[in-house]
Amino acid sequence: MAEVIGLISGIITMIEAINKANAFVRAHVHTNSSVRNELVPVLAKITALSGLLQALKLEAEFEDPYQPRLNVLAYIDGPLYACKSAMKAIENRLDRIISVGNIKVGKLFDKECVSALKIIDEAKPILELALAVDQK
């Protein structure tokens, strides 16, 4: 049970980070075409991850309390924690972006953010499989 509580806590933390990143992206996606080209793929990836995390959270909350929850995910929690670290890196980058008035200075996403997005892409299928197995 303690593993599930830790998993749910990590999921909620990631959902909050995704919501923050979504708000930033939605606020700046229409500023110019180069920013749009950089932000639209990010928005798609983190929104997909958000949907998966919401499904995991619901699975943990609404399952029968007398049945084990998220067994597979608790067993292979590495991808979840990798996504958590990746979202933390993205959130930290968004906090460090320099703005002068309404203009953001420099490239929005650095190499660390690009690799964080790659980690999310690689971990997502594993999380989807874990969710599918846990739902059976």
**Count of DSSP H/I helices:** 5
Q: Estimate the mean pLDDT confidence.
A: 80
Ends distance: 19 Å
Tell me what portion of residues adopts beta-strand conformation.
under 5%
Rg estimate, integer Å: 16 Å
Shape: elongated
Q: What's the total number of strands? A: 2
Major β-sheet annotation = 2 strands, antiparallel
Structural class: mainly alpha
Helix content: over 70%
| Helix-strand topology string | HHHHEEH
Note poorly predicted spans: none
Order of strands, widest sheet: 1-2
Structure explained in plain terms:
- The protein has 136 residues and is mainly alpha-helical.
- Helices cover 77% and strands 4% of the residues.
- The protein is built from five helices and two strands.
- Strand 1 and strand 2 (103-105) form a beta hairpin.
- The longest helix is centred in the middle third of the chain and has 30 residues, at 33-62.
- It is elongated.
- The relative contact order is 0.17.
- The mean pLDDT is 80.
What's the topology here?
Elements: H1 2-28, H2 33-62, H3 71-75, H4 78-96, E1 98-100, E2 103-105, H5 111-134
Antiparallel strand pairs: 1-2
Helix pairs in contact: 1-2, 1-4, 2-5, 4-5
Can you give me a brief rundown of this structure?
This protein is mainly α and 136 residues long.
